[in-house]
Amino acid sequence: MGFYPASVPVPQEKRTSRLYLRRLRAADVELDYEAVMSSAEMLRRWSESDWPADDFTLVHNLADRQRHEREHI
Length: 73
Prior knowledge:
This protein has 73 residues and is mainly alpha-helical. It has helices spanning 29-38, 40-47, 58-72, and strands spanning 13-15, 20-22. The chain is built from three helices and two strands. It has a two-stranded antiparallel sheet with strand order 1-2. The two termini are 21 Å apart.
């Protein structure tokens, strides 16, 4: 068995009184960019890479968000 059982539909979202989960969308680009860049050093340590680069822009992030949105769909 993988991460999630193939025979079970993946919900579009999950809401509780304290939590709201849904996949990131390209429309979330500005909030996501702020989160990425404010956590850049931690992300570099965690991923053991140089991502996000110091010159990573909102345009770059939009391209990433669009690609990931397609992958998730």
